[in-house]
């Protein structure tokens, strides 16, 4: 059937109707239709088109930490979205599903609050690793069950919870023996992970530097070596050749099982990683020796994970390192050079965060990094004042400091997050720890006082001097500002008269210009 309207169609008429389609729309374009001049931010026309250059750039230069945070958030798994398809049309809208987990704990000592705080921390660790927490249970026992960590009845109840919730992983709040791990998986029929493996997984996600990745891999291999398992044919002996039943020369006898081969390969890899870390440690020791040779004081920021160490470093030194409200957000140590009010140079280093029951594999693997804390002249022990149990955090951190031989280093407690903390909790902490300062790295509250206390705690040069320096020796005056303390400075016709304190090396160079003190 022919369309009757087709006879009325005119190409010229259709083209006339399209006239003006490509013209500028004044409602969407920044050109004023009356003046043909660009509009300003408030809708008024600029006096001159060059005024556009005066507008602030909406994209300021990002810091290294901001770029790392953006990269970390570039691909995030989304909760409440499933990979299961209800309709073929949903293929384009699939999202990565969070791992669904059930938490299990054994309460052996302490109060009920301690047990609940430990489970809450385990939930935060699980969420940081990329999972969705469905349920959390804990059992009161004198000691964990040697076979299944929790009692037989609790295992049956846990199996019902796993089946009802559809969980695919069970996370235990403790380090499981290989037999406990195997028995639980056999009975629950889902993957079982302990606290140590969970923390190692988070470290593997967040390690950025080559040294950090090698340290995490070393800790993971040390943990995995004792938990190797084989199933069926994996335990068969390795043989080769065409004679003696396929064994051949060198293949007769008990042979080597697959699990033994895996363990041997892990030991080889561990030895290689330790050699690499030893070489990296040499570079770190060289830098540390250079600072020690110039007698530059060092301050180490230590504390519980997510207490605000990186935020405090950014506030004190404008370091621009990554800051994120999550556990173990930053693992790689950062050292920044800064100066006191009177010009003395010192360094400030951020370190990996600590946690309760920090896996000993991590402590051993990160020992070269943690030596920065042991060799420091002052430790800024950052405490989260808004945490439900800040005293427990302090005890956990001090236990790790004792393990790395840093218990004797002078310590300054920095109670952070004062803008969120309960004033009663802060007062309690101040009474318990008299040598402390209260700050908020987010708002800047108390930062000036903290800097003043830090500068007063830095080691002072031990040699007094009084010298008359010629004006051509301005380099010595500059070194006195950077490495010493100036008590008085006077410009005289003969030169610069300076008195103060300096280290032994610098005092030796100043000795030829020494003058006697006035009677």
Keywords, please?
519 residues; four-stranded parallel sheet; six-stranded mixed sheet; alpha/beta; 13 strands
Question: How widely separated are the two ends?
Answer: 124 Å
Strand segment count: 13
Q: How large, in whole angstroms, is the Cα Rg?
A: 33 Å
**Strand order, biggest sheet?**
6-7-5-8-9-10
Q: What is the succession of H and E elements? A: HHEHEHEHEHHHEHEEHHEHEHEHEHEEH
What's the main sheet like? 6 strands, mixed
Helix content: 25-40%
Give the overall form. Answer: globular
Question: What does this protein structure show overall?
Answer:
The protein has 519 residues and is α/β, with parallel strands linked by helices. The chain contains 16 helices and 13 strands. The strands form 3 sheets. The chain has a 6-stranded mixed sheet with strand order 6-7-5-8-9-10, sandwiched between helices. A 4-stranded parallel sheet has the order 2-1-3-4, with helices on both faces. Strand 3, helix 5 (178-188) and strand 4 form a beta-alpha-beta unit. The longest helix has 36 residues, at 258-293. The radius of gyration is 33 Å and the shape is globular. Mean pLDDT is 78; it is low at 26-38, 46-56, 80-96, 231-235 and 240-244.
């Amino acid at each position: 059937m022919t369309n009757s309207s087709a006879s009325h169609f005119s190409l010229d008429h259709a083209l006339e109707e399209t006239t003006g389609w490509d013209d500028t729309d004044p409602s969407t374009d920044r050109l004023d239709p009356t003046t043909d001049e660009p509009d300003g931010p408030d809708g008024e026309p600029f006096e001159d088109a060059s005024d556009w250059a005066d507008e602030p750039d909406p994209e300021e230069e990002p810091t290294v930490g901001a770029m790392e945070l953006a990269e970390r958030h570039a691909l995030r798994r989304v909760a409440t979205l499933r990979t299961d398809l209800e309709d073929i049309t949903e293929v384009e809208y699939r999202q990565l599903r969070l791992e669904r987990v059930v938490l299990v704990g054994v309460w052996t000592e302490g109060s009920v609050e301690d047990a609940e705080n430990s489970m809450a921390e385990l939930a935060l660790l699980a969420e940081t690793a990329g999972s969705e927490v469905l349920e959390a249970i804990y059992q009161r026992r004198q000691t964990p069950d040697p076979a299944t960590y929790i009692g037989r009845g609790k295992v049956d109840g846990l199996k019902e919870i796993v089946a009802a919730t559809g969980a695919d992983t069970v996370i235990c709040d403790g380090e499981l023996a290989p037999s406990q791990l195997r028995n639980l998986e056999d009975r629950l029929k889902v993957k079982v992970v302990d606290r140590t493996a969970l923390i190692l997984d988070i470290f593997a996600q967040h390690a950025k530097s080559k040294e950090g990745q090698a340290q995490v891999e070393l800790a993971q291999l040390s943990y995995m070596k004792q938990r190797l398992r084989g199933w069926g044919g994996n335990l068969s002996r390795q043989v080769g050749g065409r004679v003696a039943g396929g064994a051949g020369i060198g293949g007769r006898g008990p042979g080597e099982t697959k699990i033994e081969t895996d363990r041997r390969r892990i030991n080889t890899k561990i030895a290689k990683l330790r050699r690499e870390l030893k070489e990296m440690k040499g570079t770190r020791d060289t830098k540390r020796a250079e600072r020690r040779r110039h007698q530059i004081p060092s301050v180490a920021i230590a504390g519980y994970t997510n207490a605000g160490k990186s935020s405090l470093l950014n506030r004190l030194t404008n370091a621009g390192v990554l800051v994120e409200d999550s556990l173990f957000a930053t693992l790689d140590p950062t050292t920044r050079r800064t100066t006191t009010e009177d010009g003395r140079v010192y360094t400030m280093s951020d370190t990996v965060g600590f946690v309760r029951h920090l896996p000993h594999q991590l402590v051993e693997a990160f020992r070269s990094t943690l030596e920065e804390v042991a060799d420091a002249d002052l430790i800024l022990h950052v405490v989260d004042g808004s945490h439900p149990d800040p005293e427990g955090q302090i005890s956990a951190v001090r236990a790790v400091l004792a393990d790395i031989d840093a218990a004797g280093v002078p310590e300054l407690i920095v109670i952070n997050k004062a803008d969120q903390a309960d004033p009663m909790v802060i007062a309690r902490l101040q009474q318990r720890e008299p040598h402390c300062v209260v700050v908020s790295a987010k708002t800047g509250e108390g930062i000036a006082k903290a800097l003043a206390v830090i500068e007063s705690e830095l080691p002072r040069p031990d040699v007094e001097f009084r010298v008359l320096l010629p004006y051509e020796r301005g380099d010595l005056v500059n070194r006195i500002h950077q490495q010493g303390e100036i008590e008085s400075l006077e410009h005289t016709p003969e030169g610069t008269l300076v008195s103060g304190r300096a280290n032994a090396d610098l005092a030796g160079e100043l000795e030829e210009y020494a003058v006697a003190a006035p009677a």
